[in-house]
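pinging the channel bc i need a second pair of eyes. not urgent but kinda urgent?? the chain im working w is below, pasted from the shared doc
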Amino acid sequence: MFIGKKVKLSHYHDGDGKKFAEWQWDDAFNNPLSDDMIHPHTAEDWENIFRRSSKSKENVEFTVRKTENNDLVGFVALFDLNIRNHTGELAIGFPKKEDRLKGYGSETLSLILDYGFNNLNMHKIKLTVYPFNTPAVKAYKKNGFTKEGTFKNEVFYDGKWVDIDHYAIFQNDWYASQNEYQ
């Protein structure tokens, strides 16, 4: 189990799909989550996402829960895992506004990077983010991600064309940063 001070990575629990289905209607959560068509999911859809992932060799999905009371606060995933090249992409989300900006994201990133580098032996973990999503960018940088590039006018978002930034962290850089704190 991957447990931090505030949050832990966990499996899907009965009823989680219903919560995600209710929470997904927050535009601040849903719009930045995907650079493609947004699909409203039913509780069953959410359940199926986690069920498929539990059997996948290309995706790993965790729920994120508070350590103090096991309340569901979000999800984190490594997807498009490429075993040959030891790479994968990261997705993270905290659907409820009241669960954002509390350090859950940064701690979740630390836990998923530990899992990705120590358990899956990933060489590189990548992600994409809108440059204006400053809380996310701050958390990514705090956890060692560096910007690799920008795709200009890549996504039509909120009525205008916006850039997408690409970030990554390498296993050796992550290990070096962990040794700094010991």
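so The longest strand covers residues 146-157. and The chain has a mean pLDDT of 88. — does that match what u expected or am i reading it wrong
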